[in-house]
Design a protein that fits this description.
Helix content is 50%, strand content 7%. The protein contains 17 helices and 9 strands.
Length: 506
């Protein structure tokens, strides 16, 4: 809490203003309605905020989603919490989150763009944009991803080719302990790279390694306490080191992306699209030639759309796979059952997507990995597009909304043992795979992950290919019980740094 203490000291460091500031805060705190908004209508309940600081002193700044889950037990499935001066409405539990994002999709469908994410994207691209530009970029990205085989055989072939490169990299460790994070990030990053740029990178390519490192670093740092404080008080805390690092990484990423786009532009064939960048450049040229005036097909939207896809297409899928391998090492009896089923159904041939329906236990394990991993605990924050009355509460237009996905994936009314690793959540009494409505790791509604079908295919093919080839174990001298399941701190939640052994089964 040293950063918070420094911040409070900064606010009250001048003796000439201290008395006046204290008096003002006391007035704000004790005069009814001075801090709350003046809209008519019953607003969601929540803990009483302090002036300026809001509920900051009650929040776990490293893992705010844990505090929000605890608050939901007291205040219900729709409640208010103040992140500093910023009012946030939190949605908790499967039924509430689904109702808001699906049944009230328009009202809860805008994106809240925190200061750090505006720094990184300036309102362009897909992830942190709103309005017509966002709609057009999302529509274009979805169409192009589908054209390049998202969820189809052509994407399957790309993933299986990458599986071979990943397996080769793991074999180089010869069963000795290694950190699984880098290989998994390189493999998943190459899938989205091949779709965006039209080709993959070698794992030892220094530019590629730096791009992956910076993307992962920015995602991790964006969820740290200093950035949380910066988002609350951007004019006061812009000097924090973590923000400066994000700005440097973003600047370098833009230079790299511009360079890759330039290379593709120089060899562009208007009749052949090698990847999403080519499709964008061809569309841009057509609109320029038609003199349509202002167009969303501009350089900034291209750069940030590519950057968004590269980062999102790398981080969450790699983190899920990282959890998968760690959980297999921690629960070897589950790994035994997965490998027995794979050996019986697939044998020595290459696994295919069509095998999923014949692998109910493996499919259940993969779904349970995603549920327990809880990669994006608060989703990417939303914002109300208009005034809305939801479950009897009035929520004003422009209010930040946190769909608490961790409360969905751990909803005690939906899951038999929500806090333990239990593949039976997705199996019936006969051992057949069953879908669960409360399985929402990709969120829901108009802002749900646009790469969901690609991510599902990647997770299935990478996981099964690796389990067919290797047995994953704890390093020598480390027991399964000593393999920790505490996630790292970040905007997404990969496992904390650890090493595993990949022992060849052949």
């Amino acid at each position: 809490m040293s950063l918070l203490a420094d911040f409070v000291f900064f606010l009250f460091s001048s003796p000439t203003t201290l008395l006046g500031a204290v008096a003002l805060l006391l007035v704000l705190y004790f005069v009814p309605g001075s801090f709350a908004s003046q809209e008519t209508g019953k607003e969601p309940p929540g803990p009483r905020p302090l002036p300026l600081l809001g509920n900051l002193l009650q929040l776990d700044l490293k893992r705010p989603y844990r505090t929000l889950c605890e608050l939901s037990k007291k205040y219900g499935s729709v409640f208010t919490v103040y992140f500093g001066p910023d009012k946030v409405v939190v949605l908790a539990g499967y039924r509430t989150v689904k109702e808001a994002l699906v049944n009230y999709g328009e009202e809860f469908g805008d994106r809240h763009i925190a200061p750090v994410f505006y720094d990184m994207n300036q309102g362009h691209g897909i992830l942190f944009a709103n309005g017509e530009s966002w709609k057009e970029m999302r529509r274009f990205a979805l169409t192009t991803l589908r054209d390049f085989g998202m969820g189809k055989r052509v994407a399957e072939d790309k993933i299986l080719e990458e599986c071979c490169h990943l397996i080769q990299m793991l074999e180089e460790h010869k069963g000795k302990p290694f950190d699984t994070a880098c290989p998994l990030n390189y493999a998943t990053s190459n899938i989205i790279s091949s779709i965006v740029y039209g080709s993959r990178f070698e794992y030892n390519d220094p530019q590629f390694k730096s791009m992956v490192r910076r993307a992962n670093e920015n995602i991790r740092i964006a969820g740290t306490a200093p950035i949380l404080l910066y988002n609350m008080f951007p004019r006061l805390v812009g000097w924090v080191k973590n923000r400066q690092l994000i700005l440097r990484n973003t600047e370098t990423n833009i230079i790299d992306v511009k360079g890759l786009i330039k290379q593709l532009k120089e060899t562009l064939n208007p009749h052949v699209c090698r990847g999403l960048v080519d499709c964008f450049l061809i569309r841009k040229q057509k609109e320029d030639d038609s003199c349509v005036g202002d167009t969303h097909y501009n350089e900034k939207n291209l750069i940030f759309t590519v950057s968004n896809l590269f980062a999102a297409g790398t981080d969450t899928t790699a983190a899920t796979l990282g959890w998968g391998l760690l959980l297999m090492a921690k629960y070897p009896h589950v790994q035994d059952q997965v490998q027995e089923e794979l050996s019986r159904v697939v044998g020595s041939r290459q696994v295919r997507v069509d095998d999923r329906k014949s692998l109910p236990y493996t499919d259940a394990v993969i779904h349970e990995i995603q549920r327990l991993a809880n990669i994006v605990p608060v989703a990417v924050p939303h914002k109300t597009s208009r005034d809305v009355t939801f479950q009897g509460y009035f929520i004003k237009e422009g209010t930040t909304v946190f769909p608490l996905l961790t409360s969905v994936l751990n909803d005690e009314s939906e899951w038999e043992s929500p806090h333990t690793f239990n593949p039976s959540h997705f199996l019936d009494e006969e051992g057949k795979f069953i879908k669960r409505d409360a399985f929402m790791p990709f969120s829901a509604g108009r802002r749900m992950c646009l790469g969901e079908s690609l991510a599902k295919m990647e997770i299935f093919l990478f996981f099964t290919s690796l389990l067919l080839r290797f047995r994953f174990t704890a390093p020598p001298g480390v027991t399964e019980d000593e393999l920790g399941l505490t996630p790292a701190v970040g905007f997404t939640l990969p496992p904390s740094a650890h090493e595993l052994c990949a022992v060849s089964r052949q």
